[in-house]
Design a protein that fits this description.
CATH superfamily of the largest domain: Immunoglobulins
Mean pLDDT: 83
GO molecular function: MHC class II protein binding; protein tyrosine kinase binding
Signal peptide: 1-20
Strand content: 35-45%
Number of helices: 3
Largest sheet: 9 strands, mixed
Keywords: Membrane, Signal, Transmembrane, Transmembrane helix
Low-confidence stretches: 1-19, 401-412
Radius of gyration: 49 Å
Region (Disordered): 266-289
CATH topology of the largest domain: Immunoglobulin-like
Structural class: alpha+beta
Organism: Parambassis ranga
CATH class of the largest domain: Mainly Beta
Number of domains: 4
Length: 474
């Protein structure tokens, strides 16, 4: 290549006194490359233009009579090469190569012959930058490599990697060799997107890009995702695979301290079940009514192309705990895990006759004290909790249900008081009967030592009863 440049330079120097200067062009594989060739010599006759590639000979040629020719190695791809005639009047004889390939890289010469020994040569070196990803669609956890190649390589050139327009720093390091820079990583969501290789030298810069798609469990997108739900509400634990994937042997398990030590995982709570209406890639489970005891960590796992994919998540349950005082009730917003909560606030929700909802922020904080008897306390109270990214969820409490429970307790208390009073009366009556029986028993003990006196007493008593009977009859 350098020898041909030298020969062309010598010829040009002899014929026109020009020097051999090589223009550099960087082009991305698959794009259009424009090789510049501008001649300052103006001629009244139509010039002859010849483009030559150092390794393959003539690329394209135009005679003075207007006939065009393509070199033998370019005949099959002649449609990729053209030199716009509309620019000739301006002295621009640049060559356009469409859909450039690696093999198109190299040294080109543009010769313009205007006659009368007026010949100019322009030298252009075309370098092709190509980014290739293997595989282009990677499964989560599998090995993936991204390669940037420059053909021909320029000694001293720098290579910088960008991912989604941001500088990329490899966790495992980048392998560099002459003409190539290779990044090898384990496929994760962090690697998905557009990879760009930026090649620079001598103030020039060229770039090429390629896309990498990582398939796996797309929802939730990361492990340890927190899912919030209120006691008694419906909740869904997501496990959605990438479109086109059909996972097999999908299992759900509840992670506890005990299950991590056992080979057999804990099963899901009975309230959770998969939905048959979901598409094949959606393996989510849901519960129509979740309880506070369902809080904890869960994991979804499934096999895709013999690659086991897993995603863990944490279910956090919220509830409102009331504590009653004499004239008020204190409501406490309680969550099974508060590590992600940064703020609480309380909102009173009311509805007018038309069912229109209105919400008024009352106060911030985990607890709220409201009056039992105040009309303003009636309605629905909502505790909202927030994290760094915004609102996480909410849980509600009905004041009238609380008042009903309080009234029920008062009624039960009244019933208990009446029962105690009745039992006390019966106990008093029983004591009086026992006292009377004791008196009769003592009286009999005093009479028993005198049988004749007892006979007289009974006789007198009987006669008294007879007289009373006759008196009644009269």
């Amino acid at each position: 290549m350098m020898l041909q440049c030298f020969l062309f330079g010598v010829i040009s120097f002899i014929m026109t006194g020009a020097r051999c200067e090589v223009a550099e062009v960087l082009a991305e594989a698959g794009s259009q490359a424009v090789l510049p060739c501008k001649c300052s010599i103006l001629s009244t006759v139509s010039p002859a233009i010849t483009w030559i590639k150092a390794s393959t000979g003539t690329v394209w040629r135009k005679e003075r009579n207007g006939l065009q020719f393509w070199g033998s190695s370019w005949l099959q791809t002649g449609s990729r090469v053209r030199c716009p005639h509309s620019q000739f009047e301006r002295g621009d004889y640049s060559l356009q190569i469409n859909s450039v390939r690696d093999e198109d890289g190299g040294l080109y010469t543009c010769r313009v012959d205007c006659g009368k020994q007026q010949v100019t040569d322009t030298f252009v070196r075309l370098r092709i930058i190509k980014v290739s990803v293997s595989p282009a669609v990677a499964i989560w956890g599998s090995s993936v490599s991204v390669t940037c190649s420059v053909t021909p390589w320029r000694t001293g050139a720098s290579v910088q990697w960008k991912l989604n327009d941001s500088p990329f720093v490899s966790l495992t390091g980048t392998t560099k060799s002459e003409g190539q820079s290779v990044v090898k990583e384990k496929a994760t969501d962090r690697l998905a997107g557009t990879w760009t290789c930026v090649v620079g030298y001598a103030g020039k810069e060229g770039r090429a890009s390629a896309a990498l798609s990582v398939q796996g469990i797309i929802q939730p997108s990361t492990d340890n995702t927190q899912v919030y739900a209120a006691v008694g509400s419906a909740v869904t634990l997501p496990c959605v695979f990438s479109s086109g994937l059909t996972p097999v042997n999908v299992v759900w398990e509840r992670l506890t301290a005990e299950s991590l030590l056992k080979s057999t995982p804990d099963h899901l709570p009975p309230s959770f079940s998969p939905s048959s209406a979901h598409p094949p890639m959606d393996k989510s489970v849901s519960s129509k009514e979740v309880g506070f005891e369902d809080a904890g960590r869960y994991r979804c796992a499934g096999s895709v192309d013999k690659q086991m994919l897993t995603r863990s998540m944490q279910l956090i349950i919220a509830k409102i705990v009331p504590s009653k005082k004499r004239d008020s009730v204190v409501l406490t917003c309680q969550l099974s895990d508060t590590s992600g909560v940064t703020k609480y606030d309380w909102v009173q929700v009311t509805y007018d006759l038309n069912g229109t909802e209105s919400a008024v922020l009352v106060q911030e904080g985990m607890t709220l004290s409201i009056s039992k008897v105040s009309e303003q306390s009636r309605g629905e109270w909502m505790c909202r909790f927030y994290g760094k990214q915004g609102i996480l969820g909410n849980v509600t409490y009905q004041v009238h249900s609380m008042a009903g429970l309080s009234g029920q307790k008062s009624t039960d208390h009244s019933r208990n008081t009446a029962t105690i009073a009745g039992l006390s009366f019966l106990l008093l009556l029983l004591l009086l009967i026992l006292a009377q029986m004791y008196k009769n028993h003592q009286r009999r003990k005093r009479i028993l030592p005198y049988p004749a006196l007892e006979t007289i007493v009974h006789t007198i008593s009987n006669e008294r009863e007879e007289r009373e009977k006759h008196r009644v009859k009269k």
